[in-house]
Amino acid sequence: MSSQTKKQPILKKITRGLTVGSVITGSTFFHGPPVLALGLTKLFKQSTKVDETNIHITNSWLGVNNWLIDHVLPHLEWQISIDDDLDLSMQGRYLMTCNHQSWVDTTVNQYFGLTRMPLTRFFTKWELIFIPFVGQAFKILGFPMMKRHSKEQIEKNPELKTRDMEESRKACEQLLSQPFTLLNYLEGTRFTPEKHAEQHSPYQHLLKPKAGGLALALNILGDKIDALVDMTIVYPDGAPGYGDFWLGDVNRIAVNLRKIEIPSWVLGSNYEEDAEYRERFQHWVHELWIEKDQLIERMKQQYRATQV
C-alpha cells in the first residue's frame, strides 16, 4: 500500500506530462500551418484582414494552453492585482515591462493577457526564424526580430548599428496598424542568484535594467500608445522551470500590473546620441526599478504572512 502511495504522484506527473505534451503538440500542428499559409500571402500584398485572422488563430492556440492551465493544473493558485488607474482594453496599444525569472514568465503573460490585452509581442533574436513554425510565426505576427551584433563587429562596420536601429524602428512602426502589446524584459536575461552577485546589483530581487530598448520603443511609439504598463511576477515558492510548471509543481503565482506615467521630457530625444538625456533616462528607469523591487518584496511578504 505504501509503495502504491509513493508511485501515485509520479504516475500523475507522467500522465499530466503526456497530456500536456500531446495537446500542445497537436494544437501547434493544427494552428501553425494556417498562420504560415496566410503569412505567405503577405509577400505579395499586405492585408489588415490577414493580420487580424492570424491573431485570431494565435489567440485560439493560446486559449488551448490556458485551458490546460485551468483544467490540467487544478492546484495552481493565481493572485492577480491590477492598479485602479490602469484601464486595459483589447483595442489598446501598450508598451510593457516585466521582471524576468523563468521561461514560465511568457506563459504567465499570455495567460493573463489573452482576455484583457492585445496579443503580446516581444523583441526576439533573428536566429529564431530558423525554428520550424515558431520562428516563422514570430515574423508573420510582427514580433520585432533583432540581428544583434557584437561591439567588435560594430567597430569594424559602424553601419551595422544604424541598420539595427532602422530595423527596430520599422518593426515597431508596423505594429501601429493594429492593437498591440509590446513586451520588454529590461533585465535582458533571466534572474539567477549567480547573475545577481556577478552584477553587484543594487536591487534585492532584480538584475540591473538595460534602458536602451525601452528608450528606443518610447522614442518610436511613445506618443501613440495608451499606456506604459509594468508587470511584476512573483513565484512565492521559487522561480520554476518550464517543465516544473507543466508537470504541476507550481502551486502559486502572483501578478501585479501598474501604469507608469511617462514624463514629457522622455519623448522626442535621442538616447544613443544625447549623453545628458541618456543619463537622465537611466536614472528614471533606476527609480522605477527601485519601486518594482520594493513591490516584489511586499508581494513576497504577503505570502509569507499567509504561511504563519
Give a quick rundown of the structure.
It contains 10 helices and 8 strands. It is α/β, with parallel strands linked by helices and 308 residues long. It has 2 domains: 74 residues; 172 residues, no CATH class.
Keywords:
308 residues, two-stranded parallel sheet, 6-stranded mixed β-sheet, 10 helices, alpha/beta, disordered N terminus, 2 domains
Sheet with the most strands, sense and barrel status: 6 strands, mixed
Number of individual domains: 2
| Strand residues, percent | 5-15%
Q: Which consecutive residue ranges, at least 5 long each, have pLDDT under 50?
A: 1-7
Tally of strands: 8
Keywords: Acyltransferase, Transferase
Domain Phospholipid/glycerol acyltransferase: 94-236
Protein name: Acyltransferase
GO molecular function, one term: acyltransferase activity
Describe this structure in words.
Helix 4 links the parallel strand 4 and strand 5. This protein folds into 2 domains: 1-74; 76-118 and 179-307, no CATH class. Strands 1-8-7-2-6-3 form a 6-stranded mixed β-sheet, with helices on both faces. The chain has 10 helices and 8 strands. It has 308 residues and is of the alpha/beta class. Helix 6 crosses helix 8 (212-221). Keywords: Acyltransferase, Transferase.
